[in-house]
Amino acid sequence: MQPDDKKRNAAKAALNYIGDNTVLGVGTGSTVNHLIDLLPGVKDRIRSVVSSSTATTTRLEELGFEVSLLNEVGDLDLYIDGADEANKHLQLIKGGGGALTREKVLAGAARKFVCIIDDSKLVGMLGKFPLPIEVIPMAQSFVARKLAKMRGQPVWREKFVTDNGNHILDVHNLVISNPMEMETRINQLPGVLTVGIFAHRPADVLIIGDDSGIRVIGK
Ligand code: 5RP
Q: What is the pTM of this model?
């Protein structure tokens, strides 16, 4: 099965978590785009929808959804998003699309976080995928030097500005044997807005599209 079919199957399975009157948060990326394409079919179950990026907002609006602000709706019943890597503890690396800050806010505001991936993203140890970190522009070199001292190789994502007007450092070869500790450590560097490790707030449910269909971890 092609990766795109696996992503679509995972997205389709996530629709089952949308109950009546749901305040729904929607993530960003190619897997979530499959979900967005399917949302018109369950529109009657969605009370409000909140978006994690301008790209997702545009797609939702094109399909006729009115997108609410998080400040208007309070907490989310459900947040559905993809990931760049996931481990069996449902800890994630996110931010390949650069939307990690708003994604982390929505995950934090959600009573349930359902993550949808294809099986290539399930890993034993996080960190093969370069870790995205959103930094304020004036701190970029300072933060990069700190990360180099932590034995990572930070690479500036050139010509990319986040929805919040910031830059992304993609950090290669970091050993993330303790995701919670690494998340805390990087968060504490001045100038870091968000690190793409989602360990303190992992997913509650991981839906993995694979050759046999889907596999679900968590509940
Ligand atoms: C965007 C993200 C995405 O969830 C992540 O990059 C996965 O994207 P895709 O579904 O296209 O593989 O974190 O910031």
A: 0.97
